[in-house]
Each structure stands twice: as structure tokens, then as C-alpha cells.
Design brief:
By secondary structure, the chain is of the alpha/beta class. It is 31% helix and 17% strand.
């Protein structure tokens, strides 16, 4: 559905190539369109999209297997950048994968609450949401008026996952409809993870 970009790595400003990390972009349900900040980052910075076989009818096991393959195939450490269902994917994958030590950090943006009735029946197999602590540094960015996850629920997920919480205020689902453009504030959060 999306063109896979060449494998790109991002180096911290200190230029230490031994610490370079591959940035993997994890879109949510239905993928991210060209105006979504994720795809703008891919275009601008050359990050790699983890392509899923079925964006419209996502199967949790299939998506987890694809993420595992992408982490294994990446040269060196990785940083995950997930949006919506991609956040729920990261938590599920981290609970079972033997390759989590390769992940330096994760930027989790606007998780979709697959346990809420309005999403749960449209995304069967994605409940319950895995709530155990993530084994790598993470930042969760939530919105006060996200139609797919209340701010209280997003904050609760951040707490359970032991992710740093960032409140974006009223930004909807923090997607293309939020008119964020390249979302430089989000990219600054990613750069902080790349420095870790």
C-alpha cells in the first residue's frame, strides 16, 4: 500500500556511528496517507515503513510477525515510531518477542483503544491490550480530544507501559487531520530517543 523506503539509519548529533539506529515507522489501521506526519518523516528523513500485508483487516499475529522480521533485518539497534494501532502492536510484540533488546526506544503516538466498543468490534483480535511494562525507553504522546482513545485511557497506558507521558492538548488523533505538517515537536521527541 505504501512504497517501502530504503533502510535508513539516523545518527545522534555526536556523530558516533556505532550508536546509529534504524527508525522503523509503524502506521496504524488503514495505514498512514501521504500527508500524515509519519509519511512526511519517511519522505524527509528516509525512515523505513514496516509494511503490513493487510492494512484494512489487520491480524495481530501477522502484524507482530512482520514487526519481528523488520527488527531482526535492521542493521544494529532500532527506534520504533508508532501511531494508533501501531502502539497496541508494539506492546503486544514486546510481550512475546525475543528481540526486544535490539530496540533502543519507542515513540508511541495516539494509541487506539481497541478495548473500547466502537473500535473493538471493528478490530477483532486486538483485545485485550497488553499492559505490561515495555522493556525499552518509550514516550507516549496523547491528545485531550482523541476520538479513538480518551486522554485518561492514554495516560493509563503510558503508566502501565512505563512510558514518559506527553499531553499534546486538543489535537484530535494526532494524524493528518490534526494539521501538524511535519510535526517538528514530535520529531524532537524522536531525536531525544535516538540520543539515548
Amino acid at each position: 500500500m505504501h512504497a517501502t523506503s530504503p533502510l535508513a539509519t539516523a545518527s545522534p548529533p555526536d556523530g558516533d556511528k556505532t550508536r546509529a539506529a534504524t527508525v522503523l515507522i509503524l502506521p496504524g489501521w488503514q495505514g498512514s496517507g501521504p500527508e500524515h506526519w509519519q509519511m512526511r518523516w519517511v519522505h524527509t528523513h528516509g525512515y523505513r515503513v514496516v509494511e503490513q500485508n493487510n492494512w484494512l483487516h489487520p491480524l495481530r499475529g501477522d502484524w507482530m510477525a512482520r514487526l519481528d522480521e523488520s527488527v531482526i533485518d535492521a542493521p544494529g539497534p532500532v527506534v520504533l515510531v508508532a501511531h494508533s494501532l501501531g502502539c497496541i502492536l508494539v506492546a503486544a510484540w514486546a510481550s512475546v518477542s525475543r528481540h526486544t533488546a535490539r530496540v533502543r526506544g519507542a515513540l508511541l503516538v495516539a494509541p487506539g483503544d481497541t478495548e473500547a466498543p466502537e473500535l473493538g468490534h471493528r478490530l477483532p483480535g486486538w483485545s485485550p491490550v497488553v499492559r505490561q511494562a515495555l522493556p525499552f525507553k518509550s514516550i507516549l504522546v496523547g491528545s485531550q480530544n482523541d476520538p479513538y482513545c480518551t486522554a485518561a485511557r492514554a495516560y493509563s497506558l503510558a503508566k502501565d507501559w512505563r512510558a514518559d507521558w506527553v499531553d499534546m492538548g486538543a489535537c484530535g488523533h494526532i494524524n493528518a487531520d490534526s494539521s501538524l505538517g511535519d510535526w517538528p515537536e514530535g520529531h524532537a521527541l524522536l531525536k531525544n530517543l535516538l540520543k539515548e
